[in-house]
Amino acid sequence: MEKSISNLGEAKQGQIRTMFFTFKMLALFFSAIPLFQYFSAKLNIDFVNNNYSVYAIGLTLIVICLVMFFLFFVFNRSEKNKFLQVLEVVIFLAVFITVIVVSGANESYYKFIFLFVIVSFTIEHGMKLGLIIASIASGAVILMDILMGGTRGVNRYFEDDIALIVMFFLVAWTLGYYVKLEKSHIDELTEYANIDGLTGAYNHRCFYDMISIMYDESIQHDAALSLVMIDLDYFKKYNDMNGHNKGDELLKEISEVLKMCLRQEDILFRYGGDEFCVLMPGICQDEAAQVADNLRNAVSIYGFPGQEYLPNRKMTVSVGVASLTEETENYNDFIAEADRALYRAKFLRRNKVEVYSSIFDQTGSSGGDGLTEVMKPLKTLITVINSRDSYTFNHVDRVYNYSEIMANHLKLADHEKKKLLYAAYLHDLGKINVSKEVLVADNNLTPEQWEELRKHPVDSAAIIEQIEGLEEVVPIVLQHHEKFDGTGYPQGLKGGEISYLARILTVIDSFDAMTNHRTYQETKTFEEAFEEIERCKGTQFDPVIASQFMEAIG
User: Fold this and answer.
1) Which residues contact 34 (CB under 8 A, 6 or more apart)?
2) SS3 call for 205
3) Which pLDDT tens digit goes with each residue over 216-248?
4) Same domain, yes or no, for 38 and 136?
């Protein structure tokens, strides 16, 4: 699998840190050579019989080991703080100055050892730190020349050291400038890799990099984070009418319009095709919904060339909004929540903003704390069904939304509306007993498979009737596949024998089944589905309710 740009960057930084750690270790070992020479030659000692030499050499080894331990500690920290960086530089300079002093000070042949620390820290931290270290090293060399060079004659060591000092600054400046150019080039390449070439927004790959980082940060710091997903309405029709070049120009203009409505900290991405998304750190659901509506309105009132050929003679967008909650388990769930909200906005006739809310949360909150508790096992069953057949799960979500629209259109009393919504949520619960092969069948079902599937209203009702508080929902769920002319199942009821709310649910359930993809049947448009409902008035559907549903949705 191809690594993301960010992962590649982290891997490269890890390799560079390993290289510098090795380089610094070698520099420390190299600095030990003049120390041992000092203890052996300057003190003229016998290593075997002279205890002082043993102590001195032992102390030297201990100091070097302590420095190495400190470096190992710094190396293994994922984030270096400034204090540790300064302390690391001070320790290296102190060790190297000590080495030069004990190996002859101004006469030492080891003054070049400063190049180790200049090279290492310039490459690792940039030109500024490299020049600072070069200045300190130069000051130490000049100070040793002045204090220990004597006053008689020409100080030949000073003349040689001038060339060395020039080298210090030249190395620091050259390496620092190279590092600066390389960083600028890498940043430029990273920007190109993360930007969508057409719209100028960040691209799909960058979106997944950013949302994983921002999700983790929000969870860690308990901060708000919202995600807005935007889909252009009738973009395919716009392309067909105006051509793909005009479609590309439209996407560019849409991107610019969206950017003008966003806060500075918001990040716009082209998610793919005609879909955009926005990460909004620091704002909750209500604020994000307001920003999303501003985006929708800005697109709606903008005069795009060629939009006169579209329905309503203007370009519009559908928008879904989701915000982090305790129920969001990972960033993929976060994306799915925003996507489901967008889907609701699309099927609710477009040019809308929909905020994600779990249908379980809606039904649970409307039924009181006691009912919320007993609904939790049912949510688990729905989740199991989703793992076996995502169509059923999404179907339940859509049926719930249609039921809410219908209940509001009919101005149902609150207790009647609650019963309809609970029934919408639970009407396919019995499919937990249907085999996965039947649920996901990609061709016409056999008579045996149909018989198995037709049992789900009875099984759903059997599960629900065990729950105190949902007794009035049982007949609605049991009868949602009955037909107005008595040819339905499981009881063959007809007309007024069928619960009023069940007759509503029958129309909604059938309409959603007609307008969404199933491998064994052709998907209908809304208009085609309305024609089918019109044709089936009085046979499958209650004529009055069928007309009321088309008024509510159309």
Assistant:
1) 99, 100, 102, 103, 108, 110
2) helix
3) 999 988 999 999 999 999 888 888 888 889 999
4) yes
